[in-house]
Amino acid sequence: MLKGKHTVTEIEGVRCTVVETGASEDRITFLKGILEVNGLVVKTEKEKAKDGTTLPTSVIGVTDILFNAMINLYERRLVRKDGHVLNPAYWNQWPDQDWDIPYYQVQR
Predict the structure, then answer these.
(1) What does pTM read for this prediction?
(2) Is residue 1 assigned to a domain?
(3) For 73, which DSSP code?
(4) Does residue 83 lie in a domain region?
(5) Helices (H) and strands (E) in the chain, counts
(6) How far is CA 85 from CA 10, 33, 103, in A?
(7) Which residue, 86, 88, 89, 106, is the most exposed by fewest CB within 10 angstroms?
(8) What sections of the chain are H helices per DSSP?
């Protein structure tokens, strides 16, 4: 995650900006909660292998074509459910980091 690349794909018949690929069910639940709190409509779809079989991971997207997760995160536009501004430690679910410190103080 957190690359500046902006990818648009079709999920469930709707053009969406891809937020993350290769996401587990737990990650989908986590990101969906964050994105919906911020007023975005979230779409998910199981990934497919080259041979057409369904993989256990999914693609997460939002219907806002102009949305870019990295830009919104670092410009402090995204908030948590409790109203605090998100930082990369919270977004990436790094358990050993303080989720309330600014992104430029996060050590990884």
Answers:
(1) 0.83
(2) no
(3) H
(4) yes
(5) 3, 4
(6) 29, 14, 10
(7) 106
(8) 25-37, 69-74, 88-91
Stretches in the chain below the pLDDT threshold 50: none
User: Which of 100, 58, 106, 105 lies closest to 80 in space, CA to CA?
Assistant: 100
pLDDT at 76: 87
CA 76-9-92 angle, to 5 degrees, is 35
| 107 within a domain of the structure (yes/no) | no
Query: What was the pLDDT predicted at 2?
Result: 53
Q: How far apart are CA 63 and CA 71, in angstroms?
A: 16
Q: Which structural domain, as residue segments, surrounds residue 86?
A: 8-101
Q: Are 63 and 41 in contact (CB under 8 A)?
A: yes
- pLDDT on residue 106: 60
Q: State the total domains in the chain.
A: 1
Q: Rounded to the nearest 5 degrees, what angle is found at the Cα of 61, between the Cα atoms of 67 and 38? A: 55
